[in-house]
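Entry 14. Structure prediction run on the chain below.
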Amino acid sequence: MNPAPHRSIFDRGAWYVVIQAILIGLILFGPQGSLLVSAEPLKTIFQSCGIAIGLLACLIMVIAAINLGKNLTPLPCPKDDAELVQTGLYRFVRHPIYFGVLLAALAWLFIFPYVFTFVYVVALFILFDIKARREEVWLVERFPAYKSYQARVNKLIPGIY
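Output returned:
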């Protein structure tokens, strides 16, 4: 384990967190545009699925945060005293908190199926992919074992990506 040199909050990736907060704010409160699904039976099914997915997303985020323990930070740069976690939900996906947030965003889209919300959710996925790439550069520098972990565990979506 190589300790990270002292870096400012922005050198540790705070810009990613700022953009992430803006996108989540847009998903929740931004302009929505026109409806993607307006037929009533289908809209009700989507909303029901959205609620179920949202509950699952919250559970995933809480469990992943517990699994991460003292390593938890909103910044993509690991803490100076971080340890590599490969257990719990981290056995199935390298970034389960990001996965949980993406599921929550998808749930919101199912409940409020608007064009702009869809765009914001796609943008959040792209941001998490970019943020995870940067985070993983730091993780590989800090933990040589991270390379083999990357080879066997998907990045953002278990079993898919």
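Residues 43-73+83-160 form a domain with the Four Helix Bundle (Hemerythrin (Met), subunit A) fold (CATH 1.20.120.1630).
Filed with the rest of this week's runs.
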